Amino acid sequence: MNPLRLTSDATKQVFSDGNLVVTRGAVNSRGGVGTFAPTSGKWYWEGTLTTYAGGTINEIFVAAVADDISTALGFSGDFTGVRPVDGLVTKFDDSETIFAGGVGVQGDVYSFEMDLGIPQIEIFKNGSSFVTDTTMTAADVAKGIGPAYTIANNSKFTFNFGQQSFVHTPSTGFLSLNSSNLPTPTIADPSDYFHTELYTGNGTSQSRTFDFEPDLIWFKDRSITANHSLYDSVRGVTKRLSSSISNGESNQTTLTSFNSDGFTINGDGGGDAINASGDSFVAWNWIEGSTPGFDIVSYTGTGSAHTEAHSLGAVPDMMIVKNRDAIEDWFVYHQGIDSTPEGDRLKLNSTTGSSASTVWDSTAPTDSVFTVSDDDPVNKLDDAFIAYLWAEIEGFSKFGTYTGDGAANGPFVWCGFRPAFLITKRTDIAGDWLMMDSARNIFNVITKRLISDSNVGEGTTNTLDFLSNGFKLRETSANINATGGTYVFAAFAESPFKTARAR
């Protein structure tokens, strides 16, 4: 189970045997979840009432793991669970029914078979099925579904995810919920498609080398106040944009080439340096293609609402659009803003929260096109535009949302991989775009961060941990973890969960 994602007063739970045994003393009950939250597949695990003191609090259940754990009783979101004291079963549709077959005593083994293709969850006690829940929705599954529990005073649960022989035999096709049974990720080595390059400026020519030719490079001087610099292979090496200002495109000569194994820079670049002698720099690099789920689209404004084709082969989860010819804000679409993100926008160069907007013509993107309205920032007649589009790739990228709790021991956010790069943005009110990566922070806690909407140099504060399957908030500031604050994020992987190890 996951000792980093618990209900309040987490110190009252004791974990042992590799976090597979959870014990609660003579204090109020608390709950928690597992470390796995798959979105597909057929999975099996067992939970034993090793020590059972009765009471209405003990429950073993599965839950939409992206939902919040907010009370001593477990979740504020959706779940399927059984309460052994009386066999009460709660389903994803919030219905509750007593099942005599669910009543348990000390030593009983509860088994779970979770088929996310249907989707449905079947619960067994001592090998006998007593309930099947088919009320889970596709939206629930998309959050990630995994094991969870609430545990009462003087109780102990023991979980078996295949680390030892199961007491009962899973049905045909069901796999034990552990990393060896996770599907092989589409991208086994994320560094083939995303890379963070750290270097020191030398004021003259230097080449930075890594494993691919980048299509988008995002530079920032970490040492001083200097604007961000974005270059891409579609516009060319001399065409610079900056996320920290609304200015249009400028001509620069500092980036001289995109190479098959990195890039070459020359000179110090003046006030917006990417190679100032002695300064520390970061360059985030992406490669374009349907495999990594990234596309760069250049278009000319028509002044009328229209669609633009893209090559993702999937629906974009995040889009960034900039007018290259005029002083206009950077407009951002993110699928996690709300249930109808096509009617909203964020601004990459601004702290403002999300607001209603017609820039996407109130039309959701599809797997082949996205829509822009007649608004000048995204479609001014005869102006040149650039759009960066990302679609989520399981095990490589995640474009999600979370709610803050204002605690230093803050929320855990599931990604399905260990992050290499993360950018977060508060949406309900104003807040900075915070940028963090594992190259500048080789150990937890992550302290070094930059801000896409500001030209300030690198700041330090205890912000969060990068974990094998997501990130854990460690800060109480309104920018990243205010109580009740809503946030969106984009994350790219260092290692898929199947092969990730601790930092």
Tag the structure with descriptive keywords:
B30.2/SPRY; B30.2/SPRY domain-containing protein; B30.2/SPRY_sf; 503 residues; DUF7483; Jelly Rolls; mainly beta
What does this structure look like?
This is B30.2/SPRY domain-containing protein. Pfam families: DUF7483. It comes from marine sediment metagenome. Residues 1-166 form the B30.2/SPRY domain. This protein is mostly beta strands and 503 residues long. The protein has 4 domains: 10-181, Jelly Rolls (Sandwich); 190-286; 294-390, no CATH class; 397-496, no CATH class. Helices cover 3% and strands 43% of the residues. Strands 1, 2, 4, 11, 12, 13, 15 and 16 form an 8-stranded mixed sheet that branches. It has an 8-stranded antiparallel sheet with strand order 34-41-36-37-38-39-40-35. Strand 19 and strand 20 (229-232) form a beta hairpin. The two termini are 18 Å apart. The model is unreliable at 71-75 (pLDDT under 50).
Q: Would you identify the CATH H-level superfamily of the largest domain?
A: SPRY domain
Helix coverage percent: under 10%
Mean pLDDT: 90
Compute the CA-based radius of gyration.
Answer: 25 Å
**Shape field:** elongated
Poorly predicted residue ranges: 71-75
Count every helix, treating DSSP H or I runs of 4 or more residues as helices: 3
| Cα-to-Cα separation, first versus last residue | 18 Å
Number of strands: 41
Query: How many structural domains are formed by the residues?
Result: 4
User: What quaternary form is this?
Assistant: single chain
CATH topology of the largest domain: Jelly Rolls
CATH class of the largest domain: Mainly Beta
| Biggest pleated sheet | 8 strands, mixed
Structural class, by secondary structure, is mainly beta
